[in-house]
């Protein structure tokens, strides 16, 4: 029976490798990824807002991120990114040793000319995007900033497939060696209503709908050939500068030790738990696919808890370039002509109040590929390539 046992153990090992950690969370995803396909909102938008609004007559007046000081730190010009510099997705691309992921709307409009379909991935993320259809919000009288929802972004991807390869084996090879970054998406499904002072009790009702939308997108991506997907959860939004000013209260017991709003962080954790449970369900349905949870919540929370440990000197209650100043209401905000940012954004976590600085995004990204904040572990180092 010895040969039988050996075959059995061998099969078990194969299964474990294929499951990429759904059996043991200590195993890691060890493929050498060649490109990234990204879906999401302003946390990952590398220029779709810019190219998508280029036909609007007064785009730069309406959209702050099309003006300096957005982009001042690394690019030295606005790129449409909602930060002073690079985003988490940019640091992931750098870590992989691939070019920064180009925005779909720039490629589609022909304005980005040096995109190579079989070599490079594409970024479909658009600032303001929601997971749910915009009609869901319109019906409730909630303002949704655009119609570039997750399902629209998925349609863009599906329409692009023929330009990648016309053979199913070619497509399988391309998609199989790609990393799919599905999110962060869904945050705006809660931000848009919260901005209009809808209650946490109300937005909790949207959680299953949002997760269902994300789950369905993941299923569709796996169906066409995605093999490794990274699915980020929500940030600790109770630490968000904008919410700290919007929901400011003299009641000390509403805040945690870091000065964050407990109720909003509790909501974000609840959402992330639900998302994680759904990913576990998907892992069982797709045992040969690697579905990685990216814990943006805890990777960001450690910065809010001990900023100085990460070289950040400014308190979370101050943003480098606020979009609006609650104490001094005026039309001038970050991105308005003449508005200048703080001298050194690298000393801040909040950039414009909704979004974070490049410095914060870099630390959060490092927490994903160097730290413990992905499950199973996201290994972008490529050193194990020969073993696969
Ligand atoms: C989204 O689409 C709907 C229906 O086509 C349209 O009425 C609405 O104005 C659009 N919203 C935005 C923000 O573009
Ligand atoms: C697949 O076929 C279409 C239509 O014939 C063509 O436009 C496209 O370039 C082809 N894609 C590849 C990767 O060859
Ligand atoms: C202060 O906040 C706590 C926690 O949310 C709540 O239980 C308590 O009733 C609040 N106190 C006042 C005076 O509003």
List keywords for this structure.
alpha/beta, 6-stranded mixed beta sheet, two-stranded parallel ribbon, binds 2-acetamido-2-deoxy-beta-D-glucopyranose, 15 helices, 388 residues, single chain, hydrolase activity, acting on ester bonds, disordered N terminus, Rossmann fold
3D structure, described in words:
- The chain is of the alpha/beta class and 388 residues long.
- It has a single domain (30-306, 356-375), classed as Rossmann fold.
- Helices cover 40% and strands 7% of the residues.
- It contains 15 helices and eight strands.
- The strands form two sheets. A six-stranded mixed β-sheet has the order 3-2-4-5-6-7, sandwiched between helices.
- The longest helix is centred in the last third of the chain and has 24 residues, at 262-285.
- The protein binds 2-acetamido-2-deoxy-beta-D-glucopyranose (3 copies).
- The site of one 2-acetamido-2-deoxy-beta-D-glucopyranose (NAG) has 5 residues, from α7.
- One 2-acetamido-2-deoxy-beta-D-glucopyranose (NAG) binds next to loops.
Name of the CATH first level: Alpha Beta
The major pleated sheet works out as:
6 strands, mixed
H/I helix tally: 15
Q: How many structural domains are formed by the residues?
A: 1
**What small molecules does this complex bind?**
2-acetamido-2-deoxy-beta-D-glucopyranose
Proportion in β-strands? 5-15%
């Amino acid at each position: 029976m010895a040969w039988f046992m050996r075959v059995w153990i061998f099969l078990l090992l194969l299964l474990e490798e294929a499951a990429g950690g759904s059996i043991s969370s200590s195993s890691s995803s060890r493929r050498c990824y060649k490109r990234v396909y990204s879906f999401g909102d302003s946390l990952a938008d590398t220029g779709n807002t810019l190219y998508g609004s280029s036909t609007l007559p007064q785009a730069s007046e309406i959209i702050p991120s099309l003006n300096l000081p957005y982009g001042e730190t690394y690019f030295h010009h606005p790129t449409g990114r909602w930060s002073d510099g690079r985003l988490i997705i940019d640091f992931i691309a750098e870590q992989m040793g691939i070019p920064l992921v180009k925005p779909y709307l720039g490629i589609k409009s022909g304005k980005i000319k040096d995109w190579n379909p079989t070599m490079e991935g594409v970024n479909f993320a658009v600032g303001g995007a929601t997971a749910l259809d915009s009609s869901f919000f319109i019906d409730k009288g909630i303002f949704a900033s655009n119609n570039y929802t997750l399902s629209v972004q998925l349609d863009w991807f599906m329409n692009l497939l023929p330009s990648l390869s016309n053979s199913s084996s070619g497509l399988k090879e391309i998609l199989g060696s790609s990393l799919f970054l599905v999110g962060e998406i869904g945050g705006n499904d809660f931000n848009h209503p919260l901005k209009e002072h809808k209650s946490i009790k109300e937005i909790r009702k949207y959680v299953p709908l949002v997760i269902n939308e994300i789950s369905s997108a993941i299923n569709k991506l796996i169906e066409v050939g995605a093999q490794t997907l990274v699915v980020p959860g929500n940030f600790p939004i109770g630490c968000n500068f904008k919410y700290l000013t919007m929901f400011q209260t003299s009641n000390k017991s509403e805040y945690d030790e870091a000065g964050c709003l407990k109720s909003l962080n509790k909501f974000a954790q609840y959402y992330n738990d639900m998302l994680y449970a759904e990913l576990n369900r998907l892992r069982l349905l797709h045992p040969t696919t690697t579905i990685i949870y990216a814990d943006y919540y805890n990777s960001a929370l450690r910065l809010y808890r001990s900023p100085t440990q990460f070289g950040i000197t400014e308190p979370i209650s101050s943003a480098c370039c606020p979009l609006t100043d609650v104490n001094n209401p005026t039309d001038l905000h970050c991105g308005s002509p003449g508005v200048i940012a703080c001298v050194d954004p690298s000393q801040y976590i909040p950039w414009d109040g909704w979004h974070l600085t490049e410095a914060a995004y870099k630390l959060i990204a490092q927490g994903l590929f160097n730290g413990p904040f992905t499950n199973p572990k996201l290994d972008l180092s490529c050193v194990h390539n020969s073993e696969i």
